[in-house]
Amino acid sequence: MTIEEESSLVQRAKDGDTSAFEQLVIEHQKLVYNVSLKLTGNPEDALDVSQDTFIKAYRNLSSFRGDSRLSAWLYRLCYNAAMDFIGKNRNPSVISMTADDGSDTQFDIPDPSPSPEEQAERAFTVEAVRSAILKLPENQRQIIMMREFSGLSYGEIASELGVEEGTVKSRLSRARLALAEILKKGGTFSDCP
Amino acid sequence: MTHCDKALELISSYLDGDITPSDREFLMSHIASCPSCAEIFNILTGAEKVISHMEEPPQSLVSSVMDEVRKIESEKKVVPIKRRKKVSLRYMTLAASAVLALSLGMYADRMLSSQNQGQAAYTVETDEILPEEKMANPQISASLFDADTDGNSSEKSQSDSAVPPAQNSILGSGSPTGENSFEASLAQTNRSDELSAVYSRILYVEQLPQILETREPMTDSLGRSYYPVSDDDLTAVMEYLDSLGVTYRLTENSSAASDEAAVVIAP
What we know:
The structure holds two protein chains of two kinds.
Chain A: H1 3-14, H2 18-40, H3 43-59, H4 70-88, E1 96-98, E2 104-106, H5 116-135, H6 138-149, H7 154-161, H8 165-186
Antiparallel strand pairs in A: 1-2
Chain B: H1 3-15, H2 21-33, H3 35-52, H4 60-78, H5 89-117, H6 131-135, H7 138-141, H8 143-146, H9 151-162, H10 178-188, H11 194-198, E1 201-205, E2 218-219, E3 225-229, H12 231-244, E4 248-252, E5 261-265
Helix pairs in contact in B: 1-2, 1-3, 2-3, 5-12, 9-12
């Protein structure tokens, strides 16, 4: 979707065209869902946060002036919604499923991958990275997530933050090194090749 | 700068695919001979794979969002909002000034009488016509958002909003310690809180202004409700609070990520 197409859809949505808003949801659902998932660590919670984000976006669309990309605006809404959710729900929910024998059994659903061993290892490292990100100071967490998910370039992030592009790069570097230290202390990647 | 310092800096550039060939060669050569930097490199490349991996969202996401959107729209139709008469901003300002002058006179009388009787000076008596009740008049309160401004008025309001007062007059309802506890709450607020990183102007108020009651609030990590607002809305909220004599604080954050504004309820 081009910027012009997106601007047109945004304006139509502001004017009350729900089908236009639906097109925007379809276009950005992957971004919003994955920001939510990276922070909540749980598909069910990520779905709740994603829904909440899009509803807030719909209700507050009039405040989006188009000065920045819609993806950047949605990223901010989603990030705030996810952090709010985490703050309210200290224990992430576990998906309940009915086992084959009909009994209610609680499962933690890890990310899918080719083999069970890789699946277990991947789930552990996904959770470790998520946990490490949440342990970062707010400004460091923000810049890593912003770089990864807002769709903004270094220059655009610099404009958003009102700093030089070089400052963005150095802050991002420091944030990543801080993340590495947290992960190193956790022992998660000690066996990485 | 040591080789390790340089290598650690280059890892971030490497992860973003924004590294020159010579820097890449330096980095690879260094981590081949430095176990400590090699460990950091492996950790961050592994973490990057996890962070950048994108899952497909569930198919129910779009449909569930749109179901809620249609519900919101249907609720709007059930309770139609009557368009209110537009009122000139100058008239509104004049009316608000008159209300403020009237309430100042009433407040002064109450202060003198209560001081003479040794009573608290800040109790609001419900059988009197209060500024809040006056501002409930649709012709005045609604015009805060519907005001039809000519070029001069809009320029004046824009210039005012560009240099807003940090704190308005004290007059208002509540206990004598109400303002102090609000100020104390603000003083405890982290000056570099997450909202100041996002919004270039933040208006902190103790209670939800009536004109924002129909808005959907958001909640920050401190549990505070806040409302993203446009520049015009922010100006209107401040004028509304000024007319009521309610204390607020406006902060400007030059390093914020956006030019947007927000109203924060900070009791």
